[in-house]
Amino acid sequence: MDYIRAMTEKLHIVGGGMAGSEAAWQAAEKGVHVVLHEMRPKVKTFAHRTEMFGEMVCSNSFRSDDDEQNAVGLLHWEMRAADSLIMTSANTHRLPAGGALAVDRDPFAETITQKLKSHPNVEVSYEEVTELPDQGQWIFATGPLTSEALGAAIQKETGADRLAFFDAIAPIVYAESIDMSVAWMQSRYDKGETEEERKAYLNCPMTKDQYEAFIDALLAADKTEFHDGETAGYFDGCLPIEVMAERGRETLRHGPMKPVGLTNPHKPEEKAYAVVQLRRDNALGTLFNIVGFQTKMKYGAQTAVFKMIPGLEDAFFARLGGIHRNTFLNSPTLLDDQMRLKSKPNIRFAGQVTGVEGYVESASMGLLAGRMAAAEILGAELPVVPQDSAHGALIHHITGGAEAKTFQPMNVNFGLFRPVDGLKGGRRGRKDRYKAYTDRAKSVWSEWLSGQ
To answer: Residue limits of the MnmG N-terminal domain (predicted)?
Structure first.
């Protein structure tokens, strides 16, 4: 009977981004027939360039790949163990990035699109979904750029105003336009196992006078204005560079422009006052992303201000920065522990719209939603996601662990993990504590997977 149900009941997934693609893959691999609804290219967004699934619209980095000392690296490990489509494609198209996992964005998305379109259990519909259906099994993974029509339907159903913050995109520079007599290649602290990884970042040094002039220009530059009724509730993990500068003139020097762990081979005896880092953005090495330089400056101001950076005086920009509104649910009040909408339990939400932040976190919530929906359709008993795993820490946070009144998007971090008994706190005990978190998480996650 369950087999017949699986063959006849379809799982509808709305959104072909990281979360929707991963959810579709996980459910299809379990034998469930999936209909993946993607409104592009018929309905476009300002941030997307293509109609491919899994398109990276901001950075090309999945951040740290360290699965013993970093929470996002642990999330990578857990996703790989669960046969994640996103991580498989990222591994195939990874670029040198020191200890981080960066990918060649277009081949990455092409692989995801090809694998989903060729899967026998996946069909694709290029129509916009604007309502929350009363029947059938649905996962909405529409991300931070949820369309106005669908957003209005969500608002009507939940009875609450949509929450929003503003997310800014960093600019991309053509490598050939960078002055390498000023800049040099080096990962901070020479991190990486290969020579290529140890030279994964391009560095532009600043003297104190150059830094001060840069800050002055940044603060004085023309910025994008907000529309009536909008408020600038930024996510702290993705602040526009000028907003960081407004918090104090030294903020950037202790953030994305920190000069530590680097030695300028052009002037080895001279310590830079600040350093701007650029990360390779494609496999050819022709494009570089300015790390941490998300911005809401107007285009003309961007080119003027960024060309003040030593080594970028003659830079050509493949893409300038931008700002957009991100939509997310107050998930602790609206979703149950299966990521279902409490008022419409035939509907699940996944990805950034649930209040997680980041490519990997979004995909991981898609992974869980896909498996949960598949189990429900198949009539199978899915074990409770272990809270001590990275996936479990995230889903626990968004479905009840967070304070609803102050709920904001969250990256995965060890602050979401339950303490390990017998380990001391503080900075000195951090290395042992993080290793204990990751060891425990790998054990419970492996056990969870083997029980399915």
So the answer is: 11-380
